[in-house]
């Protein structure tokens, strides 16, 4: 298996780059944000819980997210590998992901962080909000999401960086240029 975690602030291009990685390397894409939006659409119990949390720019509780992710992994355990997009967002989730993969005799092969300047993130998310229809792509919630990212997810990235597990891509650039950087990282690993 080839297992990749793609992380970075909201608006850093994780979804776009994940789609390109899936197209080029045939991995199974797990986007926890997409999964939650599907639950909301379906009106499920998880969806009802997540709806206000997402609109408010906060994080869905770890236990809910970890269980949801575990189920997805088990359902697709025959995949060539996974690209985890939007998970882990907390240290508890990072810990749980390591354990889940270890129990399958697997590990995270590539940890990729997307670096984008704060003002560019805000600009991109506001622009996306004009067409995405997402409840959280508005100025007030965007700032909240970026603050939640700094508080909860940056420590995860710092942890990976300190243990020398992190690779970085600069996405203050075009989709194509960023993907060229990512491709180099993946191809160097294989
Ligand atoms: P995303 O599409 O990844 O930007 O996620 C949209 C929203 O879904 C986030 O702002 C959170 O409210 C929620 N969410 C997605 N993934 C997670 C996660 N791993 N842990 C907690 N909440 C999450």
Order of helices and strands: EHEHHHEHEHHEH
Strand order, largest beta sheet: 2-3-1-4-5
Helical content band: 55-70%
**Sheet/helix structural class:** alpha/beta
- CATH class descriptor name: Alpha Beta
- CA-to-CA gap between the ends? 11 Å
Ligand inventory reads: adenosine monophosphate
CATH architecture: 3-Layer(aba) Sandwich
Number of helices: 8
Based on CA inertia axes, which overall geometry fits?
Answer: globular
Q: Beta fraction of the residues?
A: 5-15%
Mean pLDDT across all amino acids: 96
Largest sheet: 5 strands, parallel
Could you give the count of β-strands? 5
Provide a descriptive summary of the structure in words.
With 190 residues, this protein is an alpha/beta fold. The protein has a single domain, classed as Rossmann fold (3-Layer(aba) Sandwich), CATH 3.40.50. Helices cover 61% and strands 13% of the residues. It has a five-stranded parallel sheet, with helices on both faces. The longest helix is centred in the last third of the chain and has 24 residues, at 139-162. The protein is globular and about 40 Å long. The model has no long low-confidence stretch (mean pLDDT 96).
